[in-house]
Amino acid sequence: MMKNTSRVQPAALPVQSMRRRRFRVATLAAIFALFALYVAWHEARGPGERHNDELPITQAHADDASQPSNAAGTPAAVAGGDLVKRGEYLARVGDCVACHTADKSRPFAGGLPINTPVGTIVTPNITPDPDTGIGQWSDADFLRAMHEGIGKGGERLYPAFPYVEYTKVTDQDVMAIRAYLKTLTPIHYAPPGNTLKFPFNQRWLMVFWNLFNFNEGRFVPDPKQSAEWNRGAYLVEGLAHCEECHTPRNFMQGLKTSSRFSGAVQAGWHAYNITPDKNSGVGNWSDDELAAYLSTGAAPGRANAAGPMAEVVTDSTQYLTQEDVGSIVKYLRSLPPISGGESRPRDQWGNPAADDVTTLRGTTVNAVNGAQLFIANCATCHNWTGQGIGASAPGAYPSLIHNSAVGASDANNLAMVILHGVTRTTKQADVLMPAFGTELTDDQVAAITNYVTKQFGNPQSTVTVDQVARLRTQQ
Protein backbone atom coordinates (compact mmCIF):
# COMPACT_ATOMS: atom_id res chain seq x y z
CA MET A 1 0.00 0.00 0.00
CA MET A 2 2.85 2.38 0.78
CA LYS A 3 4.36 1.86 -2.64
CA ASN A 4 1.07 2.35 -4.46
CA THR A 5 0.40 5.61 -2.61
CA SER A 6 3.82 7.00 -3.50
CA ARG A 7 3.08 6.38 -7.16
CA VAL A 8 -0.35 8.07 -7.08
CA GLN A 9 0.75 11.36 -5.40
CA PRO A 10 3.21 12.53 -8.09
CA ALA A 11 0.60 11.82 -10.76
CA ALA A 12 -1.98 14.02 -8.98
CA LEU A 13 0.19 17.16 -9.09
CA PRO A 14 0.12 17.57 -12.88
CA VAL A 15 -3.66 17.08 -12.83
CA GLN A 16 -4.11 19.93 -10.31
CA SER A 17 -1.72 22.12 -12.30
CA MET A 18 -3.67 21.44 -15.50
CA ARG A 19 -6.92 22.33 -13.77
CA ARG A 20 -5.49 25.65 -12.55
CA ARG A 21 -4.14 26.38 -16.02
CA ARG A 22 -7.52 25.64 -17.61
CA PHE A 23 -9.22 27.88 -15.05
CA ARG A 24 -6.85 30.77 -15.84
CA VAL A 25 -7.37 30.32 -19.58
CA ALA A 26 -11.13 30.23 -19.11
CA THR A 27 -11.00 33.38 -16.97
CA LEU A 28 -8.88 35.24 -19.53
CA ALA A 29 -11.21 34.12 -22.30
CA ALA A 30 -14.22 35.39 -20.36
CA ILE A 31 -12.52 38.76 -19.75
CA PHE A 32 -11.60 39.03 -23.43
CA ALA A 33 -15.15 38.15 -24.46
CA LEU A 34 -16.57 40.83 -22.17
CA PHE A 35 -14.07 43.33 -23.52
CA ALA A 36 -14.97 42.41 -27.12
CA LEU A 37 -18.65 42.89 -26.31
CA TYR A 38 -17.85 46.30 -24.80
CA VAL A 39 -15.92 47.38 -27.88
CA ALA A 40 -18.70 46.18 -30.19
CA TRP A 41 -21.31 47.99 -28.10
CA HIS A 42 -19.25 51.18 -27.98
CA GLU A 43 -18.55 51.18 -31.73
CA ALA A 44 -22.21 50.54 -32.49
CA ARG A 45 -23.22 53.71 -30.72
CA GLY A 46 -23.33 56.28 -33.46
CA PRO A 47 -22.33 59.92 -32.87
CA GLY A 48 -25.87 60.92 -33.70
CA GLU A 49 -27.25 59.31 -30.55
CA ARG A 50 -28.79 61.84 -28.20
CA HIS A 51 -27.97 61.79 -24.51
CA ASN A 52 -30.46 62.57 -21.82
CA ASP A 53 -27.82 64.51 -19.92
CA GLU A 54 -27.44 67.12 -22.67
CA LEU A 55 -29.35 69.73 -20.73
CA PRO A 56 -28.78 73.48 -20.66
CA ILE A 57 -26.66 74.46 -17.69
CA THR A 58 -29.18 76.96 -16.38
CA GLN A 59 -31.81 74.22 -16.16
CA ALA A 60 -29.84 72.82 -13.23
CA HIS A 61 -31.51 75.53 -11.19
CA ALA A 62 -34.81 76.22 -12.92
CA ASP A 63 -35.59 79.23 -10.74
CA ASP A 64 -32.65 81.07 -12.30
CA ALA A 65 -33.82 80.61 -15.89
CA SER A 66 -36.19 83.14 -17.35
CA GLN A 67 -35.95 81.75 -20.89
CA PRO A 68 -34.51 78.66 -22.63
CA SER A 69 -30.72 78.85 -22.65
CA ASN A 70 -27.82 76.87 -23.99
CA ALA A 71 -25.08 75.24 -21.91
CA ALA A 72 -23.03 78.39 -21.37
CA GLY A 73 -25.96 80.55 -20.39
CA THR A 74 -26.66 82.28 -23.72
CA PRO A 75 -30.34 82.53 -24.74
CA ALA A 76 -31.11 79.96 -27.43
CA ALA A 77 -32.47 82.58 -29.85
CA VAL A 78 -29.24 84.56 -29.65
CA ALA A 79 -27.11 81.43 -30.08
CA GLY A 80 -29.14 80.43 -33.13
CA GLY A 81 -29.00 83.88 -34.67
CA ASP A 82 -25.30 84.40 -34.15
CA LEU A 83 -23.88 80.90 -34.14
CA VAL A 84 -20.50 81.82 -35.61
CA LYS A 85 -19.88 84.58 -33.08
CA ARG A 86 -20.84 82.19 -30.30
CA GLY A 87 -18.50 79.57 -31.74
CA GLU A 88 -15.62 82.03 -31.85
CA TYR A 89 -16.13 82.77 -28.16
CA LEU A 90 -16.26 79.08 -27.28
CA ALA A 91 -13.13 78.42 -29.34
CA ARG A 92 -11.47 81.09 -27.19
CA VAL A 93 -12.66 79.32 -24.04
CA GLY A 94 -11.14 76.09 -25.35
CA ASP A 95 -7.94 77.90 -26.41
CA CYS A 96 -7.99 75.95 -29.68
CA VAL A 97 -5.56 78.32 -31.36
CA ALA A 98 -2.78 77.59 -28.86
CA CYS A 99 -2.29 73.95 -29.78
CA HIS A 100 -3.30 74.17 -33.43
CA THR A 101 -0.93 77.00 -34.35
CA ALA A 102 2.81 76.50 -34.77
CA ASP A 103 3.34 79.44 -37.13
CA LYS A 104 1.30 82.58 -36.34
CA SER A 105 1.06 83.28 -40.07
CA ARG A 106 -0.87 79.98 -40.34
CA PRO A 107 -3.44 80.11 -37.50
CA PHE A 108 -5.23 76.85 -36.79
CA ALA A 109 -3.14 75.01 -39.42
CA GLY A 110 -1.46 72.82 -36.80
CA GLY A 111 2.13 71.63 -36.82
CA LEU A 112 2.86 72.30 -33.14
CA PRO A 113 5.02 69.50 -31.66
CA ILE A 114 3.91 68.34 -28.21
CA ASN A 115 6.49 66.36 -26.29
CA THR A 116 5.16 63.42 -24.26
CA PRO A 117 6.91 60.65 -22.30
CA VAL A 118 6.31 58.29 -25.25
CA GLY A 119 7.34 60.58 -28.10
CA THR A 120 6.21 63.67 -29.99
CA ILE A 121 2.67 64.34 -31.15
CA VAL A 122 2.16 67.00 -33.84
CA THR A 123 -1.14 68.86 -33.86
CA PRO A 124 -3.33 68.64 -37.00
CA ASN A 125 -4.65 71.30 -39.34
CA ILE A 126 -8.23 72.25 -38.38
CA THR A 127 -8.84 74.90 -41.04
CA PRO A 128 -11.52 74.13 -43.68
CA ASP A 129 -8.92 73.07 -46.28
CA PRO A 130 -10.44 69.98 -47.94
CA ASP A 131 -7.12 68.16 -48.46
CA THR A 132 -5.01 68.90 -45.38
CA GLY A 133 -7.61 70.24 -42.93
CA ILE A 134 -11.11 69.26 -41.88
CA GLY A 135 -12.95 70.68 -44.89
CA GLN A 136 -14.41 67.29 -45.77
CA TRP A 137 -15.48 66.42 -42.24
CA SER A 138 -19.20 66.12 -41.58
CA ASP A 139 -20.83 67.51 -38.45
CA ALA A 140 -21.09 63.93 -37.19
CA ASP A 141 -17.35 63.47 -37.72
CA PHE A 142 -16.62 66.60 -35.69
CA LEU A 143 -18.96 65.61 -32.89
CA ARG A 144 -17.43 62.16 -32.71
CA ALA A 145 -13.89 63.57 -32.47
CA MET A 146 -14.85 66.02 -29.71
CA HIS A 147 -17.01 63.60 -27.74
CA GLU A 148 -15.35 60.23 -28.31
CA GLY A 149 -11.79 60.92 -29.46
CA ILE A 150 -12.30 59.24 -32.85
CA GLY A 151 -11.19 60.83 -36.13
CA LYS A 152 -12.97 60.95 -39.47
CA GLY A 153 -11.43 57.67 -40.64
CA GLY A 154 -12.31 55.87 -37.41
CA GLU A 155 -8.79 56.25 -36.02
CA ARG A 156 -8.32 56.68 -32.29
CA LEU A 157 -7.08 60.16 -31.36
CA TYR A 158 -4.33 60.62 -28.81
CA PRO A 159 -5.32 62.35 -25.56
CA ALA A 160 -2.97 65.26 -26.24
CA PHE A 161 -6.25 66.35 -27.83
CA PRO A 162 -8.29 66.76 -24.62
CA TYR A 163 -11.40 64.85 -25.63
CA VAL A 164 -11.42 63.53 -22.07
CA GLU A 165 -12.78 66.98 -21.14
CA TYR A 166 -14.40 67.96 -24.44
CA THR A 167 -16.75 64.99 -24.15
CA LYS A 168 -18.64 67.06 -21.55
CA VAL A 169 -19.44 69.86 -24.02
CA THR A 170 -23.03 69.86 -25.31
CA ASP A 171 -23.83 69.19 -28.96
CA GLN A 172 -25.02 72.74 -29.53
CA ASP A 173 -21.78 74.24 -28.25
CA VAL A 174 -19.67 71.82 -30.30
CA MET A 175 -21.69 72.76 -33.37
CA ALA A 176 -21.13 76.44 -32.65
CA ILE A 177 -17.37 75.85 -32.65
CA ARG A 178 -17.76 73.86 -35.84
CA ALA A 179 -19.64 76.77 -37.45
CA TYR A 180 -16.86 79.17 -36.50
CA LEU A 181 -14.07 76.91 -37.81
CA LYS A 182 -15.88 76.72 -41.15
CA THR A 183 -15.43 80.50 -41.53
CA LEU A 184 -11.63 80.35 -41.17
CA THR A 185 -9.42 80.87 -44.20
CA PRO A 186 -8.52 77.41 -45.56
CA ILE A 187 -4.78 76.84 -45.29
CA HIS A 188 -3.23 74.12 -47.41
CA TYR A 189 -0.61 72.73 -45.04
CA ALA A 190 0.10 69.17 -44.02
CA PRO A 191 1.90 69.07 -40.65
CA PRO A 192 4.66 66.48 -40.16
CA GLY A 193 3.71 63.13 -38.67
CA ASN A 194 3.98 62.00 -35.07
CA THR A 195 7.16 60.35 -33.85
CA LEU A 196 6.01 57.91 -31.20
CA LYS A 197 7.83 54.85 -29.94
CA PHE A 198 6.44 51.37 -30.53
CA PRO A 199 3.92 50.24 -29.36
CA PHE A 200 2.54 53.72 -28.62
CA ASN A 201 2.37 54.48 -32.34
CA GLN A 202 -0.41 51.89 -32.61
CA ARG A 203 -3.58 53.96 -32.35
CA TRP A 204 -5.83 50.97 -31.67
CA LEU A 205 -4.19 50.61 -28.27
CA MET A 206 -6.05 53.76 -27.23
CA VAL A 207 -9.06 51.49 -26.73
CA PHE A 208 -7.34 50.10 -23.63
CA TRP A 209 -6.25 53.56 -22.45
CA ASN A 210 -9.82 54.80 -22.74
CA LEU A 211 -11.10 51.92 -20.61
CA PHE A 212 -9.19 53.25 -17.61
CA ASN A 213 -8.98 56.99 -18.30
CA PHE A 214 -12.03 58.11 -20.27
CA ASN A 215 -15.74 58.36 -19.48
CA GLU A 216 -17.72 59.47 -22.51
CA GLY A 217 -20.75 61.66 -21.77
CA ARG A 218 -22.03 65.19 -21.56
CA PHE A 219 -21.87 67.43 -18.50
CA VAL A 220 -24.68 66.79 -16.02
CA PRO A 221 -25.68 69.87 -14.00
CA ASP A 222 -25.96 69.45 -10.25
CA PRO A 223 -29.48 70.52 -9.20
CA LYS A 224 -28.20 71.17 -5.66
CA GLN A 225 -25.85 73.88 -6.92
CA SER A 226 -26.52 77.33 -8.33
CA ALA A 227 -26.54 78.17 -12.02
CA GLU A 228 -23.30 80.11 -11.49
CA TRP A 229 -21.55 77.08 -9.95
CA ASN A 230 -22.79 74.79 -12.72
CA ARG A 231 -21.61 77.20 -15.38
CA GLY A 232 -18.17 77.27 -13.75
CA ALA A 233 -18.05 73.48 -13.51
CA TYR A 234 -19.08 73.16 -17.16
CA LEU A 235 -16.32 75.52 -18.28
CA VAL A 236 -13.52 74.22 -16.02
CA GLU A 237 -14.26 70.53 -16.54
CA GLY A 238 -15.12 70.90 -20.22
CA LEU A 239 -13.88 73.38 -22.80
CA ALA A 240 -11.33 75.16 -20.59
CA HIS A 241 -9.83 71.71 -19.74
CA CYS A 242 -7.99 73.11 -16.71
CA GLU A 243 -7.24 69.62 -15.40
CA GLU A 244 -4.96 68.87 -18.35
CA CYS A 245 -2.25 71.02 -16.77
CA HIS A 246 -3.23 71.32 -13.10
CA THR A 247 -3.86 67.62 -12.33
CA PRO A 248 -1.01 65.09 -11.97
CA ARG A 249 -0.84 62.02 -14.22
CA ASN A 250 -1.05 58.34 -13.41
CA PHE A 251 1.35 55.73 -14.78
CA MET A 252 -0.69 55.54 -17.99
CA GLN A 253 -0.46 59.32 -18.42
CA GLY A 254 -4.16 59.65 -17.67
CA LEU A 255 -5.43 62.20 -15.17
CA LYS A 256 -5.01 61.19 -11.53
CA THR A 257 -8.55 61.98 -10.46
CA SER A 258 -7.82 61.50 -6.75
CA SER A 259 -5.57 64.59 -6.90
CA ARG A 260 -7.63 66.87 -9.14
CA PHE A 261 -6.22 70.39 -9.55
CA SER A 262 -3.42 69.78 -7.03
CA GLY A 263 -0.71 70.80 -9.51
CA ALA A 264 1.56 69.07 -12.01
CA VAL A 265 4.67 69.67 -14.11
CA GLN A 266 4.14 70.05 -17.85
CA ALA A 267 7.10 70.48 -20.21
CA GLY A 268 9.25 71.80 -17.39
CA TRP A 269 6.66 74.31 -16.12
CA HIS A 270 4.90 73.75 -12.82
CA ALA A 271 1.15 74.32 -13.13
CA TYR A 272 0.46 75.11 -9.50
CA ASN A 273 -2.15 73.77 -7.10
CA ILE A 274 -5.41 75.70 -7.65
CA THR A 275 -7.48 74.06 -4.93
CA PRO A 276 -8.57 76.23 -1.95
CA ASP A 277 -5.78 74.94 0.30
CA LYS A 278 -4.40 78.01 2.08
CA ASN A 279 -0.73 77.01 1.89
CA SER A 280 -0.36 74.88 -1.21
CA GLY A 281 -3.22 76.29 -3.27
CA VAL A 282 -5.05 79.59 -3.75
CA GLY A 283 -7.12 79.53 -0.57
CA ASN A 284 -5.65 82.82 0.63
CA TRP A 285 -6.46 84.64 -2.65
CA SER A 286 -9.54 86.82 -2.84
CA ASP A 287 -12.17 86.30 -5.53
CA ASP A 288 -11.12 89.57 -7.15
CA GLU A 289 -7.47 88.46 -7.27
CA LEU A 290 -8.36 85.16 -8.94
CA ALA A 291 -10.58 86.97 -11.45
CA ALA A 292 -7.85 89.54 -12.16
CA TYR A 293 -5.27 86.81 -12.72
CA LEU A 294 -7.51 85.05 -15.26
CA SER A 295 -8.40 88.30 -17.02
CA THR A 296 -5.03 90.07 -17.02
CA GLY A 297 -2.42 87.48 -16.05
CA ALA A 298 -1.41 89.52 -13.02
CA ALA A 299 -2.45 89.56 -9.37
CA PRO A 300 -0.05 92.00 -7.64
CA GLY A 301 1.48 90.50 -4.54
CA ARG A 302 0.42 87.02 -5.66
CA ALA A 303 1.54 85.94 -9.12
CA ASN A 304 2.24 86.93 -12.71
CA ALA A 305 1.41 84.49 -15.50
CA ALA A 306 4.38 83.12 -17.43
CA GLY A 307 5.03 80.20 -19.75
CA PRO A 308 1.95 78.22 -20.85
CA MET A 309 -0.32 80.12 -18.46
CA ALA A 310 0.69 83.43 -20.03
CA GLU A 311 -0.35 81.95 -23.35
CA VAL A 312 -3.68 80.81 -21.89
CA VAL A 313 -4.36 84.34 -20.64
CA THR A 314 -3.28 85.89 -23.95
CA ASP A 315 -5.31 83.61 -26.20
CA SER A 316 -8.19 82.57 -23.97
CA THR A 317 -9.14 83.73 -20.49
CA GLN A 318 -8.79 87.48 -21.06
CA TYR A 319 -11.67 87.20 -23.54
CA LEU A 320 -14.06 85.53 -21.11
CA THR A 321 -17.04 87.52 -19.90
CA GLN A 322 -17.07 88.71 -16.30
CA GLU A 323 -19.94 86.31 -15.70
CA ASP A 324 -17.93 83.31 -16.92
CA VAL A 325 -14.80 84.35 -15.00
CA GLY A 326 -16.89 84.73 -11.86
CA SER A 327 -18.42 81.31 -12.44
CA ILE A 328 -14.99 79.72 -12.76
CA VAL A 329 -13.87 81.35 -9.52
CA LYS A 330 -17.06 80.15 -7.81
CA TYR A 331 -16.40 76.57 -8.91
CA LEU A 332 -12.70 76.60 -7.97
CA ARG A 333 -13.64 77.82 -4.49
CA SER A 334 -15.78 74.71 -4.02
CA LEU A 335 -13.06 72.17 -4.76
CA PRO A 336 -11.74 70.00 -1.92
CA PRO A 337 -8.51 71.58 -0.58
CA ILE A 338 -5.45 69.43 -1.26
CA SER A 339 -2.25 70.02 0.67
CA GLY A 340 1.05 69.76 -1.13
CA GLY A 341 3.06 69.88 2.08
CA GLU A 342 4.08 73.56 1.91
CA SER A 343 4.58 75.26 5.26
CA ARG A 344 3.36 78.65 4.04
CA PRO A 345 1.78 80.14 0.90
CA ARG A 346 4.05 80.62 -2.13
CA ASP A 347 3.34 84.35 -2.15
CA GLN A 348 4.30 84.95 1.49
CA TRP A 349 8.07 84.62 1.20
CA GLY A 350 10.86 87.15 0.92
CA ASN A 351 12.35 90.44 2.04
CA PRO A 352 14.07 93.26 0.13
CA ALA A 353 17.83 93.00 -0.36
CA ALA A 354 19.64 95.30 2.05
CA ASP A 355 23.22 95.94 0.99
CA ASP A 356 24.24 93.57 -1.82
CA VAL A 357 25.08 96.45 -4.15
CA THR A 358 27.28 98.10 -1.52
CA THR A 359 28.99 94.81 -0.69
CA LEU A 360 29.84 94.09 -4.32
CA ARG A 361 31.03 97.61 -5.11
CA GLY A 362 34.76 97.53 -5.83
CA THR A 363 34.90 93.77 -5.29
CA THR A 364 36.69 91.57 -7.81
CA VAL A 365 34.51 88.59 -8.67
CA ASN A 366 36.45 85.62 -10.00
CA ALA A 367 33.70 82.95 -9.94
CA VAL A 368 30.05 82.61 -10.82
CA ASN A 369 28.27 84.88 -8.37
CA GLY A 370 24.49 84.97 -8.19
CA ALA A 371 24.26 88.45 -6.64
CA GLN A 372 26.56 89.99 -9.26
CA LEU A 373 24.70 88.28 -12.11
CA PHE A 374 21.35 89.43 -10.71
CA ILE A 375 22.44 93.04 -10.42
CA ALA A 376 23.97 92.97 -13.91
CA ASN A 377 21.05 91.28 -15.69
CA CYS A 378 17.89 91.69 -13.62
CA ALA A 379 18.10 94.77 -11.38
CA THR A 380 17.29 97.28 -14.12
CA CYS A 381 13.70 96.02 -14.19
CA HIS A 382 13.22 94.31 -10.84
CA ASN A 383 15.36 96.75 -8.79
CA TRP A 384 18.40 95.52 -6.90
CA THR A 385 16.18 95.29 -3.82
CA GLY A 386 13.89 92.85 -5.69
CA GLN A 387 10.86 95.10 -5.14
CA GLY A 388 10.17 95.70 -8.82
CA ILE A 389 9.46 98.99 -10.57
CA GLY A 390 6.05 100.52 -11.19
CA ALA A 391 4.16 99.04 -8.23
CA SER A 392 0.89 97.45 -9.44
CA ALA A 393 0.51 99.41 -12.71
CA PRO A 394 -0.48 97.25 -15.72
CA GLY A 395 2.95 97.50 -17.34
CA ALA A 396 4.95 97.31 -14.12
CA TYR A 397 8.00 95.13 -13.64
CA PRO A 398 6.84 92.74 -10.92
CA SER A 399 8.27 92.45 -7.47
CA LEU A 400 10.17 89.25 -6.71
CA ILE A 401 8.99 89.47 -3.12
CA HIS A 402 5.60 87.85 -2.43
CA ASN A 403 5.82 86.22 -5.84
CA SER A 404 4.51 82.69 -6.44
CA ALA A 405 7.32 81.66 -8.77
CA VAL A 406 10.01 82.77 -6.30
CA GLY A 407 8.30 81.35 -3.19
CA ALA A 408 7.40 77.97 -4.69
CA SER A 409 8.82 74.79 -3.20
CA ASP A 410 10.59 74.09 -6.50
CA ALA A 411 12.43 76.64 -8.61
CA ASN A 412 11.41 75.24 -12.02
CA ASN A 413 9.27 78.16 -13.10
CA LEU A 414 11.79 80.78 -12.02
CA ALA A 415 14.58 79.05 -13.96
CA MET A 416 12.27 78.63 -16.98
CA VAL A 417 11.41 82.35 -16.92
CA ILE A 418 15.12 83.24 -16.90
CA LEU A 419 15.81 80.82 -19.74
CA HIS A 420 12.80 81.49 -21.95
CA GLY A 421 11.46 84.88 -20.89
CA VAL A 422 7.84 85.99 -20.64
CA THR A 423 5.43 87.11 -23.36
CA ARG A 424 1.92 88.09 -22.35
CA THR A 425 -0.32 90.42 -24.33
CA THR A 426 -3.64 91.54 -22.88
CA LYS A 427 -6.00 94.45 -23.26
CA GLN A 428 -4.33 96.02 -20.23
CA ALA A 429 -0.64 95.58 -21.03
CA ASP A 430 1.97 94.11 -23.34
CA VAL A 431 4.36 92.30 -21.02
CA LEU A 432 7.76 91.19 -22.28
CA MET A 433 10.72 89.83 -20.37
CA PRO A 434 13.64 88.86 -22.60
CA ALA A 435 14.93 85.31 -22.59
CA PHE A 436 18.44 84.94 -21.18
CA GLY A 437 18.95 81.38 -22.38
CA THR A 438 21.24 82.49 -25.20
CA GLU A 439 23.13 84.96 -22.99
CA LEU A 440 23.79 82.93 -19.85
CA THR A 441 25.29 79.50 -19.29
CA ASP A 442 23.59 76.79 -17.25
CA ASP A 443 25.71 77.50 -14.18
CA GLN A 444 24.95 81.23 -14.44
CA VAL A 445 21.21 80.60 -14.69
CA ALA A 446 21.42 78.26 -11.70
CA ALA A 447 23.36 80.89 -9.73
CA ILE A 448 20.81 83.64 -10.43
CA THR A 449 17.90 81.32 -9.65
CA ASN A 450 19.38 80.24 -6.33
CA TYR A 451 20.27 83.82 -5.37
CA VAL A 452 16.73 85.01 -6.08
CA THR A 453 15.04 82.20 -4.13
CA LYS A 454 17.41 82.63 -1.19
CA GLN A 455 17.18 86.41 -1.07
CA PHE A 456 13.60 87.10 -2.16
CA GLY A 457 11.72 83.82 -1.86
CA ASN A 458 11.82 80.29 -0.48
CA PRO A 459 15.47 79.65 0.52
CA GLN A 460 14.91 75.87 0.45
CA SER A 461 14.06 75.99 -3.26
CA THR A 462 17.15 75.51 -5.41
CA VAL A 463 18.18 74.16 -8.81
CA THR A 464 21.32 72.38 -9.95
CA VAL A 465 23.24 73.02 -13.15
CA ASP A 466 22.03 69.67 -14.51
CA GLN A 467 18.41 70.61 -13.83
CA VAL A 468 18.86 73.87 -15.71
CA ALA A 469 20.37 71.96 -18.64
CA ARG A 470 17.27 69.75 -18.79
CA LEU A 471 14.90 72.70 -18.51
CA ARG A 472 16.73 74.48 -21.32
CA THR A 473 15.61 71.79 -23.77
CA GLN A 474 11.91 72.12 -22.87
CA GLN A 475 9.49 73.88 -25.20
TrEMBL record:
Keywords: Cell membrane, Electron transport, Heme, Iron, Membrane, Metal-binding, Repeat, Signal, Transport. One of its GO terms (cellular component) is plasma membrane. It comes from the Bacteria. Binds 3 heme c groups covalently per subunit. Residues 82-185, 227-336, 365-456 form the Cytochrome c domain. It is found in: Cell membrane. Heme c 2 binds at residues 242, 245-246. Heme c 1 binds at residues 96, 99-100. It comes from Paraburkholderia fungorum. Heme c 3 binds at residues 378, 381-382. Its cofactor is heme c. One of its GO terms (molecular function) is oxidoreductase activity, acting on CH-OH group of donors. Its main location: membrane. PANTHER family: ALCOHOL DEHYDROGENASE CYTOCHROME C SUBUNIT, BLL4482 PROTEIN-RELATED. This is Cytochrome c.
